[in-house]
Design brief:
Helix content is 53%, strand content 9%. By secondary structure, it is mainly α. The strands form 4 sheets. The protein has a 3-stranded antiparallel β-sheet with strand order 1-9-6. The chain has a two-stranded antiparallel sheet with strand order 2-5. Strand 3 and strand 4 form a beta hairpin. Helix 2 crosses helix 4, helix 4 crosses helix 6 and helix 6 crosses helix 13.
């Protein structure tokens, strides 16, 4: 029985949740944007998203360097947003410095920023600006990518209710959830071993990434003259871009049903997840540069999905609304994802 119905901006909630998560794990800081209790954190999140969109716009704006020189238009806005980001991040660094200096030497340094600050005692050339870049890099890697993938994942489940039901059954069986199981009891059973047994959920998230990769266009700068595998020569300073979005929809790679959402393509005859070559499925890149946070991202997304699908049912708030992309470094749903949430 559905007891309550609520309209939720799912993509916005995922953005806030993953931002809070990366700040807690990476920097040992409670941002609390999801609860809405931290206004400064909310302004940081907004500035971060706007900066991402404005930075990506440079790919299409041939005059961006001139605008930057004159500090006008989109570049003037980006400059203001960047100042907001710098102010917030430098405050986080200073706060962490004070926290470490007030602790005993044997206190554990569990978050990433603390470990970099401890390392800096041996590497004095590691500036605050370098630490700022580290923080922003972790946010780019750990916030938007996970949040947009979860948004597209729930969008695809609303479009494919049979897949949603299969995931729900798998999660229920693995967790052994009975009628009346509370969220607290459910989460206690959501161990790493249990998550690893959710093969259909893993396949569904992977299929979402195939069709909607978090980074739809990935650019690399050539550091030295080189020759690509097909014999094409590239020179130092050349920008090489590969496109996971169209690659995930190519029929010669994925078959005639390449544009069909089909998690089963990732399962073997025993129903176990069977990965493809990362050079074919490029959502996490491949080779020496493969995403270091891949397993963490999967774990985080599976936790979100397992809990939400076990206690809520979701429907699109407007089935007829066309979904468009927001031009950013990551593949956002333009205007957000609004769902009806029914408590089970």
């Amino acid at each position: 029985m559905f007891t309550t119905k609520t309209f939720v901006h799912e993509q916005d909630l995922f953005m806030k949740a993953t931002l809070d998560s990366i700040f807690k794990v990476g920097f040992g800081t409670e941002l609390n944007t999801l609860s809405g209790s931290n206004e400064e954190g909310n302004r940081f999140a907004e500035a971060f998203d706007d900066s991402s969109a404005l930075t990506f716009y440079r790919y299409f704006d041939v005059f961006w360097k001139l605008k930057k020189l004159l500090n006008i238009g989109s570049e003037a806005v980006l400059m203001e947003k960047s100042k907001m980001l710098d102010h917030f991040v430098y405050n986080v660094i200073e706060s962490k410095k004070e926290q470490i200096s007030s602790q005993r030497d044997n206190m554990p340094k569990e978050d990433i920023l603390s470990r970099f600050l401890v390392l800096r005692q041996k590497e004095p050339n590691m500036s605050d600006r370098y630490l700022r870049d580290i923080i922003l890099s972790f946010i780019i890697a750990g916030k938007d990518t996970t949040a947009v993938t979860l948004s597209w994942f729930f969008y695809m489940l609303c479009k494919n209710p049979i897949v949603k039901e299969k995931i729900g059954r798998e999660v229920k069986e693995v967790i052994d959830a009975k009628e009346g199981t509370t969220i607290g009891e459910f989460v206690e059973r959501l161990t790493e071993e249990a998550l690893n047994r959710m093969h259909y959920l893993h396949a569904s998230i992977t299929e979402t990434l195939r069709l909607y990769p978090a980074v739809a266009a990935d650019a690399k700068l050539c550091c030295s003259d080189d020759t690509l595998p097909d014999g094409f020569n590239v020179g130092r300073g050349d920008l090489v871009v590969y496109l996971p979005y169209p690659m995930g929809r190519m029929k010669f790679l994925w078959g005639d049903d390449a544009e069909v959402f089909k998690p089963e393509r990732w399962l073997n005859n025993d129903g176990l997840f069977q990965p493809e070559s990362p050079f074919k499925f490029t959502a996490f890149q491949a080779g020496p540069r493969i995403c270091a946070g891949k397993e963490f991202a999967y774990m985080q997304m599976k936790i979100f999905a397992a809990v939400l699908l076990s206690f809520f049912t979701f429907k699109l708030s407007d089935e007829k609304r066309a979904v468009r992309y927001r031009t950013m470094l990551t593949l956002h749903i333009d205007g957000g994802l609004f769902l009806q949430a029914f408590h089970k």
